[in-house]
Amino acid sequence: MNRKPTASWQVFNVFNVLFLTLLSLAMLLPFLNVLAQSFSSSEAIVGGKVLFLPVQFTTINYEYVFSDASIWRAFGVTIYITVVGTLINLIATSSLAYPVSRPEYKGRKVIVIMVLITMVFSAPLIPNFILMKGLHLTNTLWALLLPGAISAFNFFVMRSFFMQIPSELIDSGRIDGCSELRMIWNIVLPLSKPVMASLGIFYAVGHWNTYQSAMYYLNKPALWPLQVKLRQLIDSDNIAIDPASSQFSGLAHMDPEGIKMATIILATIPIILIYPFLQKHFVKGMMVGSVKS
């Protein structure tokens, strides 16, 4: 039987729609402003004429970014640490979360407590730097990949998901003679696509936005990821362009604002494009542990 919505419920729906609309605009409009500035001339940007549409449309900012080898090198480093780092994260997290999710494994409570302690107490910067230097990981990309191989929060999310896998499935695999690795590969992982997709997005976004770790552990500009390169551009008052380039002749010291905005767009778009392909699994993964049978 359908009930007619009450007046208070209708009022709540109106305010809910208005609030979500304003929240969406607060997130979308700054992005549109950056996008508009990336396609606008430096005079329009400096003059404050650009709002949400390009003014004096130009692609010179993107032409400069595409011609800058250092930006492409930083882009390649970011792609590498995002792909390799996410794989390491998922393998390491699942390798730890699965054993402690099964009741037959001894000592799992001790491991859970040890992981929980890392969520409450974290090592300061100086001891971390001394450790990285002692392991000879400074000025290597491993300094960005290994220290955060397992996130404590993501570990508990994945453990909660593995605990919901029926024990009957695990027992049937053992009865059929499956080894632990084969059972994980053929039974557990195919059922774990939602949580893998969700945590994969979290890990990938974290690697894509790597900044502080790179600033602490990397002194070689050739190893800087895109976010560090972007910060270098933002801190620059002027961006020098090679006068020998005929394409940019006469723009030896163009205003850097448009180039900064174009770099921001290029740094943002790839990670946004990943979400639609994983949206279905991401929504399922967010429901992990919300319902107990």
Throw out a few tags for this protein.
single chain; about 290 residues; mainly alpha; MetI-like fold; 14 helices; about 70% helix; about 0% strand; globular; disordered C terminus; membrane; transmembrane
Can you give the helix content as a percent range? Answer: 55-70%
Q: Please state the average pLDDT score.
A: 79
User: Under the CATH scheme, which class of the domain at 66-236 and 268-286?
Assistant: Mainly Alpha
Intertermini distance: 27 Å
Family: Belongs to the binding-protein-dependent transport system permease family.
Subcellular location: Cell membrane
Pfam families: BPD_transp_1
Protein name: ABC transporter permease
Give a brief outline of the structure:
68% of the residues lie in helices and 0% in strands. It is an all-alpha fold and 293 residues long.
Could you explain the architecture of this structure?
The protein has a domain at 66-236 and 268-286: Orthogonal Bundle (MetI-like fold), CATH 1.10.3720.10. It has helices at 7-38, 42-46, 60-67, 69-101, 108-120, 125-134, 142-145, 152-163, 167-175, 180-191, 193-208, 212-217, 226-235, 257-286. The protein is mainly alpha-helical. It has 14 helices and no strands.
Topology overview:
Blueprint: H1 7-38, H2 42-46, H3 60-67, H4 69-101, H5 108-120, H6 125-134, H7 142-145, H8 152-163, H9 167-175, H10 180-191, H11 193-208, H12 212-217, H13 226-235, H14 257-286
